[in-house]
Design brief:
- The protein has four domains: 73 residues, no CATH class; 75 residues, no CATH class; 130 residues, 3-Layer(aba) Sandwich (Rossmann fold), CATH 3.40.50.1010; 72 residues, Nucleic acid-binding proteins (OB fold (Dihydrolipoamide Acetyltransferase, E2P)), CATH 2.40.50.
- Strands 6-10-11-9-8-7 form a six-stranded mixed β-sheet. A five-stranded parallel β-sheet has the order 3-2-1-4-5, with helices on both faces.
- It has 357 residues and is α/β, with parallel strands linked by helices.
Amino acid sequence: MRIELVVRFIGLLVFGLGGFYLGQALVGAGGVSLQDGLAAIIISILLGALIGFVATPFITTRPYRALQQRIKQTPATDLVAAVTGLVLGLLIAVLLSFPLSFLPSPLREILPLIVAIIFGLLGMTTLISRRRDFAQLFSGRLSLRATEAVPALLDERSVLLDTSVIIDGRIADISRSGFLSGVMLVPRFVLNELQHIADSSDALRRNRGRRGLDILNRMQKDTARPLRITDMEVEEVREVDDKLITLAKRLKCPILTNDYNLNRVAEIQGVTVLNVNELANAVRLVFLPGETMRIEIIQEGKEVGQGLGYLDDGTMIVVEEGRRFIGNTINVVVTKVLQTAAGRMIFAKPDLSSNNN
């Protein structure tokens, strides 16, 4: 509310001043003396001030909010680099304006302005494009706290965590193992979704949300792999998955998830996805058709005569004609292996020769 009043007051002054000059010009163009046209000038000033007071918020609010959103989404190091580059460019322009002032008119009035614009933009773009070198150049003069405060959003190895992978919990062990070398970023909207799940009236969802918050708390205390909560927001979309994909595009970093649907949608939009399920599948034991394993049949399958068993890592074993062995541990021969992003499934049949023995 205070900002709106300030904006209205500035508009009142600017448009009122414009009304004064407009009224003065109209009076002069009509050949009327200043004293006779004083009433017209006052009316012009009041009309301009009224228009400025009423219309300024509508004119400036949208660009102001767009600029505010843009600044909020821009990493702090980009802002520092841009401001520093602008200042350096303007300093160079000031040094060049002195010899330019000896040029004949109107070059000495126009060229310094052009030089200031060119070198200001050049300084901003140069330091933004070389922001990492700029940060490393001054890193020796920064305190340890200031160095740690440099946002990890510029780290090319950073990854965005989604809600499902946090609740899953395996990310804590993966990060501790050292397979993730970059900074793990958790957007504020993902944390808000976790809090919403933790406050759910459904007991299962509530437990899942609390588990996710506990995992985050544990990972923040684990100094092996840094975890950061970022306030960068994506207001043009509403769904959390859409926000995550849009943010990953802007930061040019991958998404770490175990959500199959998010995985596919992100890949379609050109976003790199690190799927925890695919990682788990990749490190599981490899069984080839014809190999023998020993497994306990614990339940019947969907098809007639099938029996189901599981390996220690949770891989499902579908045993054809294995229903009659439910409750027993038998030797089976692998016949086929299916592997997808959703998991791995092994088909087998009883090894009758070894089981009979």
